[in-house]
Write a structure and sequence with these properties.
42% of the residues lie in helices and 14% in strands. It is of the alpha/beta class. It has one domain: Alpha/Beta hydrolase fold, catalytic domain (Rossmann fold). It has a 6-stranded parallel beta sheet with strand order 2-1-3-4-5-6, with helices on both faces. The C terminus is likely disordered.
């Protein structure tokens, strides 16, 4: 009888808060179908994409197959990791994110990031953009808790990184199918960001789900179902004819 297939590892790269604490609903919705590895970024260091990508790289599994999911801020990091063709990487999922600055008109504001009161934005304003009509007291409190852990210097560095980023060249080097989870009611990342990714890397599937920018938090069941279906296709595609023949003989 064939042995049970080993579970894939799902590596979760967080949004701009970088704490990874906001992944709890998604992890619960996945129901143990993956080994989960959450990456958290240093909360008190002013690091850009290059440094944070190295933090994520060090957290990748040393063995076995895995999928990288980059949420919002971490999309460019997921793309960069995938472009390096790390051993064991089976696929890439992007959620509510971008390969280049999603608001290029804001790029000149990069010089102002050092003086912007990034930690003083009212919760109501953040909730409007991140959650919209889906906001509730529970998620407003969770957002406050995550943001409270991160220093103003770290936030400024991440904001400046977003305004300057463009990993389109790395995106072209990917060698795995890419799944893009698009929030239909995203007030932060425009639909043009997903279109740019798909036009740059045609092996991209865009899947629109009902929800705000906080898609994995507000619609975890739908997101989990999409992730599981994508992982199943990747696992089936990765089996060579020889592997399938051996499994049939052992069954």
């Amino acid at each position: 009888m064939a042995e049970a297939k080993a579970k894939l590892t799902l590596v979760l790269l967080p949004g701009m808060d970088g704490t990874a604490t906001l992944f709890e609903p998604l992890i619960a919705a996945l129901g143990g179908s993956f080994h989960i590895r959450c990456v958290a970024y240093p909360c008190d260091q002013a690091l850009g994409y290059l440094e944070l990508a190295e933090v994520a790289r060090q957290a990748l599994p040393a063995e076995g197959k895995f999928i990288v999911l980059g949420e919002s801020f971490s999309g460019p990091i997921a793309i960069s990791l995938a472009a390096s063709q790390s051993a064991g990487l089976l696929g890439v999922i992007l959620c509510s994110t971008f390969a280049r600055n999603p608001h290029p008109l804001f790029k000149p504001l990069r010089r102002l990031a050092d003086i912007l009161p990034v930690k003083l934005l009212p919760n109501a304003v953040l909730s409007y953009f991140l959650m919209g009509r889906f906001a509730n007291p529970q998620w407003r409190a969770a957002l406050d808790g995550a943001l409270a852990q991160v220093s103003a210097a770290a936030f400024r560095a991440r904001l400046k990184a977003v305004l300057a980023v463009d990993v389109s060249a790395q995106l072209r080097r990917l060698q795995t199918p890419l799944l893009y989870l698009q929030a239909r009611h995203d007030r932060v990342v425009p639909a043009a960001a997903a279109r740019h990714i798909a036009s740059t890397y045609p092996a991209t599937q865009i899947l629109a789900l009902d929800g705000p920018h906080f898609l994995l938090q507000i619609a975890p069941q739908a997101a989990a179902a999409a992730i599981q279906a994508y992982a199943l296709k990747l696992a089936e595609a990765s089996e060579t004819p020889l592997t399938r023949s051996r499994q049939n003989l052992e069954a």
